[in-house]
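Subgroup meeting minutes
Present: P.N., E.W., G.H.
Scribe: E.W.

1. P.N. recapped why we're keeping a running log of single-chain structure predictions: easier to compare across weeks, and new members can see raw inputs and outputs side by side.
2. G.H. added today's entry (412 aa).
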Amino acid sequence: MSCLASCCASMTCGLCSSVVSGISSRSARLAYCGLFGLSLIVSWVFREIAPSLFKAIPWTSNSSETHSKEWYQMAAVLRVSLGNFLFFTIFALIMIGVKDQNDRRDSWHHGGWITKIIVWSLLVILMFFLPNAVFNMYAMLSKFGSGLFLLVQVIILLDFTHSWNDAWVEKDEQKWYIALLSVSVVCYLATFAFSGLLFFWFNPSGNDCGLNVFFIVMTMILAFGFAIVALHPKVNGSLFPASVISMYCAYLCYTGLSSEPRDYECNGLHKHSKAVSTGTLIMGMITTVLSVVYSAVRAGSSTTFLSPPSSPKAGEKKPLLESDNLDEVEKNKQNEARPVSYSYTFFHLIFALASMYSAMLLTGWTSLSDSEDLIDVGWTSVWVRMCTEWVTAGLYVWSLVAPLILSDREFS
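Output recorded in log:
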Protein backbone atom coordinates (compact mmCIF):
# COMPACT_ATOMS: atom_id res chain seq x y z
CA MET A 1 0.00 0.00 0.00
CA SER A 2 2.87 2.39 0.74
CA CYS A 3 4.13 1.86 -2.82
CA LEU A 4 0.75 2.79 -4.29
CA ALA A 5 0.40 5.74 -1.94
CA SER A 6 3.85 7.10 -2.79
CA CYS A 7 3.17 6.69 -6.52
CA CYS A 8 -0.15 8.51 -6.34
CA ALA A 9 1.17 11.10 -3.91
CA SER A 10 4.01 12.03 -6.28
CA MET A 11 1.51 12.68 -9.06
CA THR A 12 -0.70 14.64 -6.67
CA CYS A 13 2.27 16.81 -5.69
CA GLY A 14 2.86 17.43 -9.38
CA LEU A 15 -0.76 18.50 -9.69
CA CYS A 16 -0.41 20.92 -6.78
CA SER A 17 2.76 22.45 -8.21
CA SER A 18 1.00 22.87 -11.56
CA VAL A 19 -1.86 24.69 -9.87
CA VAL A 20 0.52 27.08 -8.15
CA SER A 21 3.01 27.73 -10.94
CA GLY A 22 0.80 27.48 -14.00
CA ILE A 23 0.67 24.66 -16.51
CA SER A 24 1.90 23.97 -20.01
CA SER A 25 0.28 21.88 -22.73
CA ARG A 26 2.44 18.83 -22.04
CA SER A 27 2.25 18.99 -18.25
CA ALA A 28 -1.55 19.29 -18.43
CA ARG A 29 -1.73 15.57 -19.16
CA LEU A 30 0.37 14.76 -16.12
CA ALA A 31 -1.80 17.05 -14.01
CA TYR A 32 -4.89 15.08 -15.02
CA CYS A 33 -3.01 11.90 -14.11
CA GLY A 34 -2.28 13.49 -10.73
CA LEU A 35 -5.97 14.19 -10.23
CA PHE A 36 -6.75 10.60 -11.11
CA GLY A 37 -4.12 9.43 -8.61
CA LEU A 38 -5.73 11.66 -5.98
CA SER A 39 -9.08 9.99 -6.66
CA LEU A 40 -7.50 6.57 -5.98
CA ILE A 41 -6.16 7.78 -2.63
CA VAL A 42 -9.56 9.25 -1.70
CA SER A 43 -11.30 6.01 -2.72
CA TRP A 44 -8.95 3.95 -0.57
CA VAL A 45 -9.32 6.25 2.45
CA PHE A 46 -13.11 6.34 2.18
CA ARG A 47 -13.15 2.58 1.82
CA GLU A 48 -11.33 2.21 5.13
CA ILE A 49 -13.58 4.65 7.04
CA ALA A 50 -16.81 3.70 5.25
CA PRO A 51 -18.81 2.23 8.19
CA SER A 52 -18.27 5.21 10.48
CA LEU A 53 -18.73 7.61 7.56
CA PHE A 54 -22.14 6.26 6.60
CA LYS A 55 -23.32 6.26 10.18
CA ALA A 56 -22.65 10.01 10.18
CA ILE A 57 -24.85 10.47 7.07
CA PRO A 58 -27.92 8.36 7.83
CA TRP A 59 -29.82 9.27 4.64
CA THR A 60 -27.53 7.00 2.63
CA SER A 61 -29.04 3.85 4.14
CA ASN A 62 -32.39 2.74 5.45
CA SER A 63 -32.46 2.56 9.22
CA SER A 64 -34.50 -0.64 9.02
CA GLU A 65 -31.76 -2.37 7.01
CA THR A 66 -28.49 -3.72 8.31
CA HIS A 67 -25.46 -3.87 6.05
CA SER A 68 -22.10 -5.55 6.32
CA LYS A 69 -18.81 -3.71 6.48
CA GLU A 70 -18.09 -4.74 2.91
CA TRP A 71 -21.36 -3.16 1.71
CA TYR A 72 -20.34 0.18 3.22
CA GLN A 73 -16.89 -0.10 1.65
CA MET A 74 -18.34 -0.80 -1.76
CA ALA A 75 -20.83 2.06 -1.45
CA ALA A 76 -18.11 4.55 -0.54
CA VAL A 77 -15.85 3.51 -3.44
CA LEU A 78 -18.70 3.68 -5.95
CA ARG A 79 -19.63 7.19 -4.81
CA VAL A 80 -16.11 8.52 -5.26
CA SER A 81 -15.83 6.70 -8.59
CA LEU A 82 -19.09 8.17 -9.89
CA GLY A 83 -17.98 11.68 -8.96
CA ASN A 84 -14.69 11.12 -10.76
CA PHE A 85 -16.47 9.59 -13.74
CA LEU A 86 -18.88 12.52 -14.05
CA PHE A 87 -16.02 15.03 -13.86
CA PHE A 88 -14.12 13.51 -16.79
CA THR A 89 -17.29 12.72 -18.77
CA ILE A 90 -18.46 16.33 -18.51
CA PHE A 91 -15.09 17.51 -19.81
CA ALA A 92 -15.22 14.93 -22.61
CA LEU A 93 -18.58 16.33 -23.74
CA ILE A 94 -17.44 19.94 -23.43
CA MET A 95 -14.34 19.27 -25.54
CA ILE A 96 -16.21 17.74 -28.50
CA GLY A 97 -15.24 19.53 -31.67
CA VAL A 98 -12.16 21.39 -30.42
CA LYS A 99 -9.96 21.68 -33.52
CA ASP A 100 -7.51 24.51 -32.90
CA GLN A 101 -5.89 26.35 -30.03
CA ASN A 102 -7.89 29.52 -30.70
CA ASP A 103 -10.96 27.74 -29.39
CA ARG A 104 -11.80 29.07 -25.95
CA ARG A 105 -12.27 25.52 -24.70
CA ASP A 106 -8.57 24.84 -25.31
CA SER A 107 -7.75 27.10 -22.35
CA TRP A 108 -10.40 25.30 -20.29
CA HIS A 109 -8.58 22.03 -20.96
CA HIS A 110 -5.17 23.34 -19.92
CA GLY A 111 -5.95 25.93 -17.25
CA GLY A 112 -8.28 26.79 -14.40
CA TRP A 113 -6.97 24.06 -12.12
CA ILE A 114 -8.18 25.59 -8.87
CA THR A 115 -11.71 25.67 -10.31
CA LYS A 116 -11.34 22.11 -11.57
CA ILE A 117 -10.28 20.80 -8.17
CA ILE A 118 -13.22 22.60 -6.53
CA VAL A 119 -15.68 21.17 -9.08
CA TRP A 120 -14.20 17.68 -8.71
CA SER A 121 -14.47 17.90 -4.89
CA LEU A 122 -18.08 19.11 -5.07
CA LEU A 123 -19.03 16.28 -7.41
CA VAL A 124 -17.52 13.68 -5.06
CA ILE A 125 -19.26 15.22 -2.04
CA LEU A 126 -22.57 15.44 -3.92
CA MET A 127 -22.48 11.69 -4.58
CA PHE A 128 -22.96 11.02 -0.85
CA PHE A 129 -26.34 12.75 -0.99
CA LEU A 130 -27.75 10.50 -3.72
CA PRO A 131 -29.87 7.40 -3.04
CA ASN A 132 -28.40 3.90 -3.22
CA ALA A 133 -30.44 3.01 -6.31
CA VAL A 134 -28.27 5.35 -8.38
CA PHE A 135 -25.14 3.45 -7.41
CA ASN A 136 -26.69 0.06 -8.01
CA MET A 137 -27.22 1.16 -11.60
CA TYR A 138 -23.74 2.71 -11.78
CA ALA A 139 -22.20 -0.54 -10.52
CA MET A 140 -23.80 -2.41 -13.44
CA LEU A 141 -22.64 0.20 -15.96
CA SER A 142 -19.13 0.16 -14.49
CA LYS A 143 -18.71 -3.50 -15.40
CA PHE A 144 -19.30 -2.67 -19.06
CA GLY A 145 -17.17 0.48 -18.85
CA SER A 146 -14.35 -1.48 -17.24
CA GLY A 147 -14.51 -4.04 -20.02
CA LEU A 148 -14.20 -1.23 -22.54
CA PHE A 149 -11.21 0.17 -20.64
CA LEU A 150 -9.53 -3.24 -20.67
CA LEU A 151 -10.15 -3.41 -24.42
CA VAL A 152 -8.51 0.01 -24.88
CA GLN A 153 -5.65 -1.21 -22.69
CA VAL A 154 -5.13 -4.20 -24.97
CA ILE A 155 -5.18 -2.03 -28.09
CA ILE A 156 -2.62 0.30 -26.52
CA LEU A 157 -0.38 -2.67 -25.70
CA LEU A 158 -0.62 -3.96 -29.26
CA ASP A 159 0.20 -0.51 -30.60
CA PHE A 160 3.14 -0.25 -28.20
CA THR A 161 4.68 -3.58 -29.17
CA HIS A 162 4.32 -2.98 -32.91
CA SER A 163 5.73 0.55 -32.59
CA TRP A 164 8.70 -0.72 -30.57
CA ASN A 165 9.37 -3.47 -33.09
CA ASP A 166 9.10 -1.11 -36.08
CA ALA A 167 11.39 1.45 -34.43
CA TRP A 168 14.19 -1.08 -34.01
CA VAL A 169 13.69 -2.67 -37.43
CA GLU A 170 13.85 0.72 -39.16
CA LYS A 171 17.37 1.21 -37.80
CA ASP A 172 18.38 -1.64 -40.14
CA GLU A 173 21.47 -2.58 -38.15
CA GLN A 174 22.52 -6.03 -37.04
CA LYS A 175 22.81 -5.07 -33.36
CA TRP A 176 19.15 -4.01 -33.28
CA TYR A 177 18.03 -7.26 -34.87
CA ILE A 178 20.06 -9.15 -32.28
CA ALA A 179 18.50 -7.03 -29.53
CA LEU A 180 14.99 -7.83 -30.81
CA LEU A 181 15.78 -11.55 -30.93
CA SER A 182 17.32 -11.47 -27.45
CA VAL A 183 14.36 -9.66 -25.87
CA SER A 184 11.95 -12.02 -27.64
CA VAL A 185 13.74 -15.11 -26.33
CA VAL A 186 13.86 -13.71 -22.80
CA CYS A 187 10.13 -12.90 -22.89
CA TYR A 188 9.26 -16.40 -24.09
CA LEU A 189 11.48 -18.05 -21.48
CA ALA A 190 9.86 -15.89 -18.80
CA THR A 191 6.39 -16.81 -20.09
CA PHE A 192 6.91 -20.58 -19.94
CA ALA A 193 8.86 -20.44 -16.66
CA PHE A 194 6.04 -18.42 -15.11
CA SER A 195 3.48 -20.85 -16.51
CA GLY A 196 5.36 -23.65 -14.74
CA LEU A 197 5.06 -21.75 -11.48
CA LEU A 198 1.34 -21.37 -12.07
CA PHE A 199 1.04 -25.16 -12.29
CA PHE A 200 2.84 -25.43 -8.96
CA TRP A 201 0.80 -22.71 -7.24
CA PHE A 202 -2.70 -23.37 -8.60
CA ASN A 203 -2.69 -27.12 -9.19
CA PRO A 204 -1.83 -28.55 -5.77
CA SER A 205 -1.46 -32.29 -5.55
CA GLY A 206 -4.41 -34.24 -4.22
CA ASN A 207 -7.03 -31.91 -5.73
CA ASP A 208 -9.02 -32.00 -8.92
CA CYS A 209 -8.10 -28.63 -10.46
CA GLY A 210 -9.17 -29.18 -14.05
CA LEU A 211 -10.34 -25.59 -14.53
CA ASN A 212 -7.03 -24.12 -13.42
CA VAL A 213 -5.11 -26.58 -15.59
CA PHE A 214 -7.29 -25.57 -18.55
CA PHE A 215 -6.53 -21.88 -17.99
CA ILE A 216 -2.77 -22.46 -17.74
CA VAL A 217 -2.53 -24.89 -20.67
CA MET A 218 -4.60 -22.54 -22.82
CA THR A 219 -2.16 -19.73 -22.02
CA MET A 220 0.79 -21.86 -23.11
CA ILE A 221 -0.99 -22.95 -26.30
CA LEU A 222 -1.71 -19.31 -27.13
CA ALA A 223 1.97 -18.44 -26.64
CA PHE A 224 3.00 -21.19 -29.07
CA GLY A 225 0.29 -20.13 -31.48
CA PHE A 226 1.43 -16.51 -31.50
CA ALA A 227 4.93 -17.54 -32.55
CA ILE A 228 3.68 -19.89 -35.28
CA VAL A 229 1.34 -17.30 -36.79
CA ALA A 230 3.85 -14.43 -36.51
CA LEU A 231 6.63 -16.43 -38.23
CA HIS A 232 4.43 -17.79 -41.02
CA PRO A 233 5.84 -16.83 -44.45
CA LYS A 234 2.57 -15.23 -45.58
CA VAL A 235 2.22 -13.11 -42.43
CA ASN A 236 4.17 -9.90 -42.09
CA GLY A 237 4.81 -10.51 -38.39
CA SER A 238 7.65 -10.52 -35.91
CA LEU A 239 8.59 -12.66 -32.94
CA PHE A 240 9.01 -9.68 -30.61
CA PRO A 241 5.34 -8.56 -30.41
CA ALA A 242 4.33 -12.22 -30.08
CA SER A 243 6.65 -12.70 -27.10
CA VAL A 244 5.44 -9.55 -25.32
CA ILE A 245 1.77 -10.45 -25.83
CA SER A 246 2.52 -13.98 -24.58
CA MET A 247 4.05 -12.60 -21.41
CA TYR A 248 1.09 -10.28 -20.89
CA CYS A 249 -1.33 -13.20 -21.32
CA ALA A 250 0.61 -15.16 -18.69
CA TYR A 251 0.28 -12.19 -16.35
CA LEU A 252 -3.47 -12.02 -16.96
CA CYS A 253 -3.72 -15.74 -16.27
CA TYR A 254 -1.92 -15.23 -12.96
CA THR A 255 -4.13 -12.32 -11.89
CA GLY A 256 -7.21 -14.36 -12.77
CA LEU A 257 -6.12 -17.43 -10.81
CA SER A 258 -5.01 -15.31 -7.85
CA SER A 259 -8.53 -13.83 -7.69
CA GLU A 260 -10.11 -17.21 -6.98
CA PRO A 261 -11.92 -17.42 -3.63
CA ARG A 262 -9.60 -18.05 -0.70
CA ASP A 263 -11.54 -21.15 0.38
CA TYR A 264 -11.12 -22.73 -3.07
CA GLU A 265 -8.89 -25.77 -2.61
CA CYS A 266 -7.04 -25.19 -5.90
CA ASN A 267 -5.88 -21.71 -4.89
CA GLY A 268 -2.75 -23.00 -3.20
CA LEU A 269 -0.84 -19.72 -3.31
CA HIS A 270 -3.30 -17.20 -1.90
CA LYS A 271 -5.49 -19.36 0.31
CA HIS A 272 -6.71 -17.25 3.26
CA SER A 273 -4.07 -14.63 2.44
CA LYS A 274 -4.95 -11.00 2.96
CA ALA A 275 -1.46 -9.66 2.27
CA VAL A 276 -1.22 -11.17 -1.21
CA SER A 277 -4.67 -9.87 -2.08
CA THR A 278 -3.59 -6.36 -1.14
CA GLY A 279 -0.41 -6.82 -3.16
CA THR A 280 -2.46 -7.91 -6.17
CA LEU A 281 -4.61 -4.80 -5.75
CA ILE A 282 -1.54 -2.55 -5.65
CA MET A 283 -0.19 -4.16 -8.81
CA GLY A 284 -3.54 -3.69 -10.50
CA MET A 285 -3.74 -0.06 -9.43
CA ILE A 286 -0.20 0.69 -10.58
CA THR A 287 -0.96 -1.01 -13.90
CA THR A 288 -4.11 1.10 -14.20
CA VAL A 289 -2.26 4.35 -13.49
CA LEU A 290 0.51 3.47 -15.96
CA SER A 291 -2.07 2.51 -18.59
CA VAL A 292 -3.84 5.84 -18.18
CA VAL A 293 -0.56 7.75 -18.36
CA TYR A 294 0.58 5.88 -21.45
CA SER A 295 -2.79 6.24 -23.18
CA ALA A 296 -2.65 9.96 -22.49
CA VAL A 297 0.82 10.17 -24.01
CA ARG A 298 -0.25 8.11 -27.02
CA ALA A 299 -3.28 10.33 -27.48
CA GLY A 300 -0.98 13.35 -27.31
CA SER A 301 1.34 12.00 -29.98
CA SER A 302 -1.36 10.93 -32.42
CA THR A 303 -2.55 13.18 -35.24
CA THR A 304 -4.77 10.59 -36.89
CA PHE A 305 -6.90 8.97 -34.19
CA LEU A 306 -10.00 11.08 -33.57
CA SER A 307 -8.16 14.14 -34.86
CA PRO A 308 -9.88 16.89 -36.83
CA PRO A 309 -9.56 16.80 -40.63
CA SER A 310 -7.38 19.91 -40.57
CA SER A 311 -4.72 18.26 -38.42
CA PRO A 312 -1.30 17.93 -40.07
CA LYS A 313 -0.55 14.51 -41.52
CA ALA A 314 2.83 12.93 -41.94
CA GLY A 315 4.22 12.18 -45.34
CA GLU A 316 3.28 15.38 -47.13
CA LYS A 317 6.59 16.04 -48.81
CA LYS A 318 5.58 17.94 -51.94
CA PRO A 319 5.11 21.71 -51.60
CA LEU A 320 1.60 22.85 -52.42
CA LEU A 321 2.63 26.30 -53.69
CA GLU A 322 5.46 27.65 -55.77
CA SER A 323 8.53 29.21 -54.13
CA ASP A 324 7.57 32.81 -54.94
CA ASN A 325 4.51 32.46 -52.71
CA LEU A 326 6.38 30.99 -49.73
CA ASP A 327 6.78 34.37 -47.99
CA GLU A 328 3.06 34.95 -48.14
CA VAL A 329 2.43 31.44 -46.86
CA GLU A 330 4.71 32.03 -43.88
CA LYS A 331 2.84 35.19 -42.98
CA ASN A 332 -0.48 33.39 -43.19
CA LYS A 333 0.83 30.59 -40.95
CA GLN A 334 1.65 33.11 -38.24
CA ASN A 335 -1.94 34.35 -38.30
CA GLU A 336 -3.54 30.91 -38.54
CA ALA A 337 -4.49 29.01 -35.41
CA ARG A 338 -2.43 25.95 -34.62
CA PRO A 339 -4.48 22.72 -34.62
CA VAL A 340 -4.70 20.71 -31.42
CA SER A 341 -2.31 17.79 -31.28
CA TYR A 342 -4.77 15.21 -29.94
CA SER A 343 -8.44 14.63 -29.24
CA TYR A 344 -9.35 16.16 -25.88
CA THR A 345 -12.60 14.17 -25.85
CA PHE A 346 -10.81 10.84 -26.22
CA PHE A 347 -8.30 11.94 -23.59
CA HIS A 348 -10.99 12.54 -20.96
CA LEU A 349 -12.93 9.41 -21.91
CA ILE A 350 -9.87 7.33 -21.02
CA PHE A 351 -9.91 8.75 -17.51
CA ALA A 352 -13.68 8.26 -17.20
CA LEU A 353 -13.39 4.57 -18.10
CA ALA A 354 -10.37 4.19 -15.82
CA SER A 355 -12.48 5.56 -12.95
CA MET A 356 -14.95 2.73 -13.49
CA TYR A 357 -12.20 0.13 -13.70
CA SER A 358 -10.48 1.29 -10.50
CA ALA A 359 -13.81 1.06 -8.70
CA MET A 360 -14.22 -2.52 -9.88
CA LEU A 361 -10.76 -3.38 -8.57
CA LEU A 362 -11.47 -1.88 -5.17
CA THR A 363 -14.87 -3.58 -4.83
CA GLY A 364 -14.04 -6.99 -6.32
CA TRP A 365 -16.34 -6.20 -9.26
CA THR A 366 -19.11 -5.40 -6.75
CA SER A 367 -19.42 -9.02 -5.65
CA LEU A 368 -19.84 -9.52 -1.90
CA SER A 369 -17.39 -12.13 -0.58
CA ASP A 370 -17.17 -13.82 2.77
CA SER A 371 -14.46 -11.50 4.02
CA GLU A 372 -14.47 -7.74 3.66
CA ASP A 373 -10.67 -7.72 4.04
CA LEU A 374 -10.10 -9.47 0.70
CA ILE A 375 -10.00 -7.21 -2.35
CA ASP A 376 -10.67 -8.12 -5.98
CA VAL A 377 -11.49 -11.71 -5.06
CA GLY A 378 -14.26 -13.83 -6.55
CA TRP A 379 -15.26 -15.75 -9.64
CA THR A 380 -16.37 -12.57 -11.41
CA SER A 381 -12.82 -11.24 -11.23
CA VAL A 382 -11.47 -14.59 -12.45
CA TRP A 383 -13.60 -14.67 -15.58
CA VAL A 384 -13.03 -10.99 -16.35
CA ARG A 385 -9.26 -11.61 -16.38
CA MET A 386 -9.53 -14.78 -18.45
CA CYS A 387 -11.87 -13.21 -20.98
CA THR A 388 -9.47 -10.27 -21.24
CA GLU A 389 -6.65 -12.70 -21.98
CA TRP A 390 -8.61 -14.40 -24.73
CA VAL A 391 -9.72 -11.10 -26.25
CA THR A 392 -6.07 -9.97 -26.21
CA ALA A 393 -5.09 -13.13 -28.07
CA GLY A 394 -7.90 -12.68 -30.59
CA LEU A 395 -7.02 -9.06 -31.31
CA TYR A 396 -3.33 -9.86 -31.75
CA VAL A 397 -3.98 -12.74 -34.14
CA TRP A 398 -6.45 -10.58 -36.04
CA SER A 399 -3.84 -7.82 -36.40
CA LEU A 400 -1.63 -10.40 -38.15
CA VAL A 401 -4.13 -12.15 -40.41
CA ALA A 402 -6.38 -9.19 -41.25
CA PRO A 403 -4.14 -8.01 -44.14
CA LEU A 404 -4.44 -11.49 -45.67
CA ILE A 405 -8.20 -11.78 -45.25
CA LEU A 406 -8.99 -8.18 -46.22
CA SER A 407 -6.44 -7.87 -48.99
CA ASP A 408 -8.34 -5.04 -50.68
CA ARG A 409 -7.79 -2.72 -47.70
CA GLU A 410 -4.72 -0.84 -46.57
CA PHE A 411 -3.26 -1.56 -43.12
CA SER A 412 -0.65 0.83 -41.71
